[in-house]
């Protein structure tokens, strides 16, 4: 990720705020941003908002052969994508160090913690098992991606329902949701990540750092824990040295935050299940607040139509009288006309004048063509006379001299003929265009 670096003034401002126990968004040092969960129309689809950080989660499944070393266990696959839509610093289709670190941390949080019973995903041992795929897409980046991704992942897995399956001999039948109700996944616990940012080599501590605070921090500590206070995974990065008391203090804060988030997830799942059973409206479109423009809601205003005629008469009487109407069009300049209310159309007159002009031009063009033809005939007659050889005979001498005409007159005649042809062609093209316009 190639983010725009902060200036020295911004870095000093953020560090000074951390020293004074203040944050840019008005939170306290140990406060968590608001978490909002909204579900899609299908099972296994949800959006989690952690402040302005948004993550979309989608779970899917398919029947595949199991792994050779684990023939009775299903397969879990996790994938997190960082697109330029979330932040301009992210590059599409490139495995950055941040993306690799986040994917490994999610796998350790959800797979290595054994929160999902993989043996319940087995259909036929050694032949067919369910492969559960969790896709996470970062929609907006405002810091603390791993916490939002872990919450979205566990919520989508709890909300997901796989198709029911029956096995008769070697035949496996997969039922549609209309034939049989889908089956939820077997989830033992909900591991949730909580991030801590350290400043000045661990002197100051902030919970749930924002995007600007992450640029200035010296290191980060991520703890994944469930509501039973069982630590699932822990990771420290940034090259800072933490003492035992700091880690214990972070674990106590994590236990409180995880209990609150787990309760929020359970309430959101219960409300969604209740709405689906009652047949109410659900999905992303229903989670949009009605105060926004995208809700397509407008307050109706009452209109009184009892005295419409009286008001219309008053408006007409108070209005200015109409301007004078001219019976004939006003021609300011030749070739123009004025058309309006109460004025007759004069385009027909203009068309007749155009036709008269066209006829006059046709007569002129015909006259010029006849003159050109006369000139051509005269030139040809002169050529024939000049081309005849001149014979000089003398009775005393027997020699005969033949004088041939020069080549210069031919060139001049050819030039004059080409000019006349061009003028005749131009006149013919003008007549053709005017005829088309008249039709």
Automatic annotation (TrEMBL):
Entry keyword annotation includes Secreted: no
Any one GO molecular-function label of the UniProt entry: mRNA 3'-UTR AU-rich region binding
Entries under PANTHER family matching the protein: EXOSOME COMPLEX COMPONENT RRP45, EXOSOME COMPLEX EXONUCLEASE RIBOSOMAL RNA PROCESSING PROTEIN
The protein, known as: Exosome complex component RRP45
Biased composition range(s): Basic residues: 427-439
Gene3D superfamilies reported in the protein's UniProt record: GHMP Kinase, N-terminal domain
Region (Disordered): 360-439
Designated gene of the protein: Exosc9
Highest taxon in the source lineage: Eukaryota
Biased composition (Basic and acidic residues): 373-389
GO cellular component: cytoplasmic exosome (RNase complex); nuclear exosome (RNase complex); nucleolus
Domain Exoribonuclease phosphorolytic: 32-163, 189-253
Keywords, in A-Z order: Cytoplasm, Exosome, Nucleus, RNA-binding, rRNA processing
Family: Belongs to the RNase PH family.
Species: Stercorarius parasiticus (Parasitic jaeger)
Pfam families: RNase_PH (PF01138), RNase_PH_C (PF03725)
Subcellular location: Cytoplasm; Nucleus, Nucleolus
């Amino acid at each position: 990720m190639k983010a725009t670096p902060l200036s020295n003034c911004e870095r000093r401002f953020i560090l000074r705020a951390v020293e004074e126990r203040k944050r840019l968004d008005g939170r306290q040092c140990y406060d968590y941003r608001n978490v909002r969960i909204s579900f899609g129309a299908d099972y296994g689809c949800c959006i989690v908002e952690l402040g302005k950080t948004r993550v979309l989660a989608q779970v899917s499944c398919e029947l595949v052969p199991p792994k050779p070393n684990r023939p009775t266990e299903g397969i879990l696959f996790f994938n997190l994508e960082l697109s330029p839509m979330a932040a301009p610093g992210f590059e599409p289709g490139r495995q950055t160090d941040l993306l690799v670190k986040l994917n490994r941390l999610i796998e350790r949080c959800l797979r290595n913690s054994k929160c999902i019973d993989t043996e319940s995903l087995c259909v036929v041992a050694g032949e067919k098992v369910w492969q559960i795929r969790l896709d996470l897409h970062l929609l907006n980046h405002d810091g603390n991606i791993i916490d939002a991704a872990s919450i979205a992942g566990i919520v989508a897995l709890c909300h997901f329902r796989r198709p029911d399956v029956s096995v008769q001999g070697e035949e496996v039948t997969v039922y549609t949701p209309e034939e049989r109700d889908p089956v939820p996944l077997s989830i033992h616990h909900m591991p949730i990540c909580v991030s801590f940012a350290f400043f000045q080599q661990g002197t100051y501590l902030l919970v749930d750092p924002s995007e600007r605070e992450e640029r200035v921090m010296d290191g980060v500590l991520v703890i994944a824990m469930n509501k039973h206070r069982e630590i699932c995974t822990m990771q420290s990065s940034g090259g800072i040295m933490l003492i035992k008391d700091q880690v214990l203090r972070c674990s106590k804060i994590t236990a409180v935050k995880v209990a609150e988030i787990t309760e929020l997830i359970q309430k959101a799942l219960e409300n969604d299940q209740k709405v689906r059973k009652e047949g109410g409206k659900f999905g992303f479109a229903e989670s949009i607040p009605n105060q926004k423009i995208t809700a397509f809601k407008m307050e109706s205003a009452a209109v009184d139509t009892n005295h419409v005629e009286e008001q219309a008469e008053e408006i007409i009487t108070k209005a200015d009288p109409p301007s004078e109407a001219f019976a004939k069009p006003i021609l300011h300049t030749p070739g123009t006309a004025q058309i309006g209310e109460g004025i007759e159309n004069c385009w027909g007159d203009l068309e007749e004048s155009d036709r008269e002009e066209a006829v006059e031009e046709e007569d002129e063009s015909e006259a010029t063509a006849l003159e050109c033809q006369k000139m051509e005939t005269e030139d040809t007659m002169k050529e024939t006379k000049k081309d005849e050889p001149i014979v000089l005979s003398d009775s005393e001498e027997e020699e005969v001299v033949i004088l041939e005409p020069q080549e210069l007159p031919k060139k001049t005649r050819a030039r004059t003929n080409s000019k006349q042809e061009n003028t005749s062609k131009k006149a013919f093209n003008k007549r053709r265009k005017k005829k088309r316009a008249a039709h």
